[in-house]
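ZP: hey, is the zinc ion complex queued? I don't see it on the tracker
AM: it wasn't, my bad. submitting now with these inputs:
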Amino acid sequence: MITLIKNIQELLQVRETSIDKVSGSEMAILPSIKNAFLIIKDNLIEDFGSMENLPKINADKIIDATGKVILPTWCDSHTHIVYAGNREQEFVDRINGLTYEEIANRGGGILNSAKKLNETSEEEIYEQSKIRLEEVMHLGTGAVEIKSGYGLTVEGELKMLRVIKKLAENYPIAIKATFLGAHAFPTHCKENKGGYIDEIITKMIPEIAQNKLAEYIDVFCESGYFSVEETEKIMQAGIDFGLRPKIHVNQFNSIGGIQAGVKFNALSVDHLEVMNPDDIQALKNTETMPVALPSCSYFLSIPYTPAREMIKAGLPLALATDFNPGSTPSGNMNFVVATACIKMKMTPEEAINAATINGAYAMGLSETHGSITKGKKANLILTKPISSYYQIPYAFGSNLIESVFLEGTILE
Ligand SMILES: [Zn+2]
């Protein structure tokens, strides 16, 4: 099956040779071709170029993209899409003046989600989660990482990871699974934190690795959650079973989580709302991708990741949603890109790089996703007619997507 898309006003994120990420000043460069064509063969990008150089081909389908922009689908490297119920009551409690920590201390927060998760059947969790997955696919996301972390029991965590696996089998979107047993201490281990960490290390990790239910391991490294020492212990246990770390750090406090992540060669360190100069320094010349989650900052009214300082220091940066029921009940990457421009002062070029190629890197997918490159997955966003791609962050509340291609097929 060959599809030709012609007269594309602008084809964005064109990378002739495959790259894995962009860093520092390179982030400001978003290579593109104006008045372009793109050829899809089956599920892959076969060819692209300027309309002047359009080869003679027998296409099965021809799409005229006059006035429209094409870019690779978003790569959302940090989500908690699989969960049960919601936490809209806590949302209203916060409006009425309670803090995130006060809500957590009342048995709300992550423990509230864990209670609901454990009370809900695997089938029902799948049914609820697939609605959210379908929604983000229609919003232009073509690759997504999903974490466990609302089970906090051996059975609950395995149940979540099986749901993630089933979603990956049933949908044409690339899904990467991360084990986040160390998301919070469950109620039954409040007085026995060491006991819960032992359960993670001796029961959960071996079982998950044996059943190939996750590729990555995550820890919520934060004051009141998991200390740096505990985070390192859990990361090491994951690494021993082939799970690479991708960790939550520096959301509310800078306690050394970034340095620990770098020491254990984490694929990414995520959140980073609170960054010291030492934290930025620690990330220089490493394989670890910093990931910002601006929708979370927006929803909780906490600081935004200091993107300008980080990019100035030569670091790469990825953007993701953090889609979860407590702190970010939205999986809209278009909003993330707009918020990064509006609140973090990233340029549209930087934000699009962060939400495509760097997001792909942060989940080990840059060989197949995140840019318009021959041989990569034909995962594309085709916009409605727009004056330029600046509209994507500028018109922040509008849906500018006309169609989404996943694996070469238009999503219905
Ligand atoms: Zn998160």
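AM: back. The longest strand covers residues 2-12.
ZP: great, adding it to the tracker
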